[in-house]
């Protein structure tokens, strides 16, 4: 259609008093086409100022500001592709944003031709593009399963073990292009009360977190989860060999039974031999008479962190940070019961059996223990 034809069609709409649909039918063009021409004409007329009429000038400035904001946002989204001259990715951005910014404006902004865009649009997807869509579906599924915590290294191992042949760089590109990145928040609350008269053990562990077999060294600690009902406290027992959480317990109060219940669960599940090093901080829960009696009765070797030294229990602190960043900091819990249910699902359904640790060769704690037992046999 020539510019003259478009101008005449717009003039008919503005002066004839007839509907857009009726004029479009008379001219043999689509209603949407004529509507688009009318919008473009009115936008161009509005932006042709400055206008002497204050209200019209204000409308022009608002429209101009809106256009600048749209173009700024569009340039941000496509900035990564300019240096590489990646026209295909630019075309994808243009296509995704065409409801907000017209194709004509986007192409002019990016320095690409409209004919090139429409040629790309009509072109059948390549084999690699089709494969990317299938791969992306796998990535999204595993990303959801991991509580949106897996980066490209863990994701690549997960896909490869599932039978998908893919490299890390391709996984990283697809995750980056589709915004698959986790966010983290944090909150702090003190949980260690070392001002008590209970017995304090020497630091036998001495920051040596390496273990050659399961049930050689255990680490314990207590952390916290905020809910709308108040704090919920979480105690865990960790096998330092595999980073497996072998016992855990929650309570709405920071009392000695919290740590004791977690230890009793760990003992019941593992039936450890005598001589296991049990390392904790100097909290009153771990120095209580009942807790100490259970440890000595089962033949544990007692070890405690130095006063105020958080590095002495760094392995367990790292696990708590993982739980918080992957689950707790991402959720606003309404009730303690909701928090407890999600913690249970995370520890027993994901962390122990499925979560991949780079320090374990991207195996889960249970998988790492199972592999070690097979090799030992």
What is the topology, as strand order, of the major beta sheet? 3-2-1-4-5
Give the termini distance in whole angstroms: 80 Å
Q: Uncertain spans, ≥5 residues at pLDDT below 50?
A: 185-191
- SS element count, helices: 16
Beta percentage is 5-15%
- List SSEs in N-to-C order: HHHHHHHHHHEEEHEHHEHHH
Strand count, sense and barrel status of the largest sheet are: 5 strands, mixed
Class per helix and strand makeup:
alpha/beta
**Outline, from the CA principal axes?**
elongated
User: Oligomeric status of the shown chains?
Assistant: single chain
Radius of gyration: 32 Å
Helix content: 40-55%
**Average pLDDT score:** 82
Task: Explain what you see.
With 377 residues, this protein is α/β, with parallel strands linked by helices. The chain contains 16 helices and five strands. It has helices at 3-16, 20-27, 31-46, 54-82, 87-96, 103-110, 114-122, 127-145, 152-161, 168-177, 256-270, 284-287, 289-297, 314-326, 336-351, 365-376; strands at residues 217-227, 230-239, 244-251, 277-280, 301-304. It has a five-stranded mixed beta sheet. The longest helix is centred in the first third of the chain and has 29 residues, at 54-82.
């Amino acid at each position: 259609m020539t510019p003259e034809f478009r101008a005449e069609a717009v003039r008919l709409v503005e002066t004839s008093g007839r509907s857009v649909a009726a004029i479009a039918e008379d001219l043999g063009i689509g209603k949407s086409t004529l509507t688009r021409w009318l919008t473009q004409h009115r936008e161009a007329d509005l932006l042709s100022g400055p206008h002497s009429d204050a209200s019209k000038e204000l409308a022009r400035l608002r429209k101009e500001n809106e256009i600048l904001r749209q173009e700024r946002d569009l340039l941000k989204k496509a900035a990564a592709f300019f240096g590489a001259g990646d026209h295909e990715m630019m075309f994808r951005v243009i296509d995704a944003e065409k409801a907000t910014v017209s194709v004509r404006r986007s192409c002019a902004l990016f320095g690409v031709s409209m004919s090139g865009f429409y040629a790309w649009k009509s072109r059948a997807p390549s084999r690699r593009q089709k494969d990317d869509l299938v791969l992306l579906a796998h990535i999204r599924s595993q990303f959801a399963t991991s509580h949106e915590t897996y980066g490209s290294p863990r994701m690549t191992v997960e896909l490869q073990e599932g039978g998908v042949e893919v490299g890390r760089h391709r996984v990283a590109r697809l995750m980056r292009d589709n915004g698959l990145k986790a966010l983290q928040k944090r909150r702090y609350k003190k949980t260690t009360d070392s001002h008590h008269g209970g017995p304090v053990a020497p630091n036998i562990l001495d920051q040596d977190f390496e273990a050659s077999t399961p049930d050689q060294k255990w680490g314990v600690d207590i952390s916290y989860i905020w809910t709308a009902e108040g704090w919920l406290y979480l105690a865990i027992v960790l096998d330092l060999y595999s980073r497996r959480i072998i016992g855990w317990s929650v309570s709405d109060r920071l009392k000695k039974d919290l740590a004791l219940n977690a230890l009793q669960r760990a003992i019941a599940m593992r039936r450890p031999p005598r001589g296991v090093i049990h390392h904790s901080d100097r909290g009153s829960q771990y120095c209580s008479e009942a807790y100490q009696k259970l440890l000595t009765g089962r033949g544990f070797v007692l070890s405690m962190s130095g006063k105020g030294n958080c590095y002495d229990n760094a392995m367990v602190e790292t696990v708590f940070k993982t739980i918080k960043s992957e689950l707790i900091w991402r959720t606003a819990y309404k009730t303690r019961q909701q928090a407890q249910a999600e913690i249970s699902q995370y520890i027993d359904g994901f962390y122990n059996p499925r979560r991949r640790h780079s320090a374990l060769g991207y195996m889960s704690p249970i998988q790492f223990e199972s592999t070690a037992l097979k090799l030992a046999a």
